[in-house]
From TrEMBL:
The modification 4-aspartylphosphate is found at residue 55. The keyword Phosphoprotein applies. The keyword Phosphoprotein applies. InterPro entries: CheY-like_superfamily, LytR-like, LytTR_DNA-bd_dom, Sig_transdc_resp-reg_receiver. GO terms for molecular function: DNA binding; phosphorelay response regulator activity. Gene3D superfamilies: 3.40.50.2300, LytTr DNA-binding domain (2.40.50.1020). This is Response regulator transcription factor. Residues 137-241 form the HTH LytTR-type domain. Residues 4-115 form the Response regulatory domain.
Length: 241
């Protein structure tokens, strides 16, 4: 299995260091490198890599801002010369981080994690722009940020012009409309319950009859979602044998 990788790093010395390490691992195919966030974004949109080696602290825009620009985030290994950033990266659910200068054994250990995670992620449908349950999205709400697997999100809910995302007892805001979010979600597991909410059917614990032919969904996280009458008919058809 070839792993398509890109490097986004402002230091030429650090990029060269990573490239030399990558050469020692035949399973990685380096498809491009960039020295800033904007060129990194263009590179990722063009190549759709499996793996991103990302410098955190770059001038003008930092690595976290790049993640925020992406609809779908590759498996990310942060690179940094500052230990404080390395520790912080775990709040973002990065797969791993590498302190510069990068140790060869430490690099190999990070790649083991990458290979393990990718082995379960190769069911992506390349012919569509839809996300899969294994796709990662980046969410930034105030000072907090997360890399979240789509399949770990229980539901989405409109809040004004934005969308609240429910996962792991957290409810941050995603600065996109619910309609924008719906266009990207895998249809086999996400269902538009009403004008305000989309649910992950894998997180439904119980379905209850409700008023006027409606249904009420009890989610595994304790939340309740009312399905509109029209969508209740569609839901019954979708979920029946």
């Amino acid at each position: 299995m070839k792993i398509k990788a890109v490097i986004v790093e402002d230091s030429r010395l650090a990029r060269n260091e990573l490239k030399e390490l990558i050469k020692k691992h035949e399973e990685i195919e380096l498809v491009g490198e960039a020295e800033n966030v904007d060129s990194g974004y263009e590179l990722i949109q063009k190549e759709h890599p499996d793996l991103l080696f990302l410098d955190i602290n770059m001038p003008e825009k930092d690595g976290f801002e790049l993640l925020e620009m992406l609809d779908e985030v590759p498996i990310t290994v942060f690179t940094t010369a500052f230990d404080e950033y390395a520790i912080k990266s775990f709040e973002y659910n990065a797969l791993d981080y590498l302190l510069k200068p990068v140790n060869e054994k430490r690099f190999a250990k990070a790649l083991e994690k990458v290979t393990t995670q990718l082995s379960g992620n190769k069911e992506e449908v390349a012919t569509t722009k839809k996300l899969s349950e294994n796709s990662q999205i980046f969410i930034k709400d105030g000072e907090s940020c997360w890399l979240v697997k789509v399949g770990d999100i229980s539901h989405f809910e409109i809040v004004g012009n934005y969308t609240r995302v429910f996962f792991d007892k957290k409810k941050p805001l995603l600065y996109k409309s619910l309609n924008q979010v719906e266009e990207k979600l895998p249809e086999q597991s996400f269902f538009r319950a009403n004008r305000q909410q989309i649910v992950n059917t894998n997180f439904i614990e119980n379905v209850m009859p409700w008023f006027n032919g409606k249904l009420k969904l009890q989610m595994k996280n304790g939340e309740e979602v009312e399905v509109s009458r029209r969508q209740s008919y569609i839901f019954k058809d979708k979920m029946s044998l």
